[in-house]
Write a structure and sequence with these properties.
Elements lengths: L2 H33 L3 H27 L2 H31 L24
Helix pairs in contact: 1-2, 2-3
Keywords: Membrane, Transmembrane, Transmembrane helix
InterPro entries: PhaG_MnhG_YufB (IPR005133)
Pfam families: PhaG_MnhG_YufB
């Protein structure tokens, strides 16, 4: 077997591992969205394992496709996902906290005053 054939086999195997691992993480995130009891836990499940699962799937696709245009597109998709998912989760968390949705017993620190308005910056 030529070295290119061995390298191709190794890259294809790594791609399969990444694709399966990413798919399992995305599945776990979906199950957690249904099973977790409160908003903050669901928000965590919707962002952290979902983004990692997507990045693993993109890595697996990049290892399998191996062309410059495809890899560049996959890198852009991953970068946009990394830029938008934390911001969206932060905004959902702030809106939920402002509406008093989280159970106060589950919070370690409640930084929102009793009136419901956040403190003004100094």
């Amino acid at each position: 077997m030529s070295p290119d054939g061995v390298l191709g086999t190794v890259l294809d195997t790594a791609a399969v591992v990444c694709l399966v691992g990413g798919a399992l993480l995305c599945l776990a995130a979906g199950v957690a969205l249904v099973r977790f009891p409160d908003l903050l836990s669901r928000m965590h499940a919707a962002t952290k394992p979902q983004v990692l699962g997507l990045l693993l799937v993109l890595l697996g696709c990049g290892l399998r496709l191996r062309t410059g245009v495809d890899v560049t597109t996959l890198v852009l998709i991953g970068a946009f996902q990394l830029a938008t998912a934390p911001v969206a989760a932060h905004m959902v968390g702030r809106a939920a906290l402002r509406e008093r949705r989280p159970d106060p017993d589950l919070l370690v620190t409640d930084e929102l005053p009793a009136g419901g308005n956040p403190p003004s910056p100094s």
